[in-house]
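Example record

One chain of 55 residues, shown exactly as stored in the release files.
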Amino acid sequence: MRIAQHSDEALGLAIALIPAVAVYWQWRLGGITGDCHGASIEVTETLLLAACVLG
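Predicted structure tokens for this chain:
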């Protein structure tokens, strides 16, 4: 199924992106706050859904 294939690819990208975002917050702010965590979740979710719809 076409959507399932693209959602798997998008999920793999999201999983790879999570550690990179954590490293960014650690570098930029010296740690991860609740606001950083929430922003990361929202951005990752938006990109994941957009990749599934547009993919």
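Notes: The radius of gyration is 13 Å.
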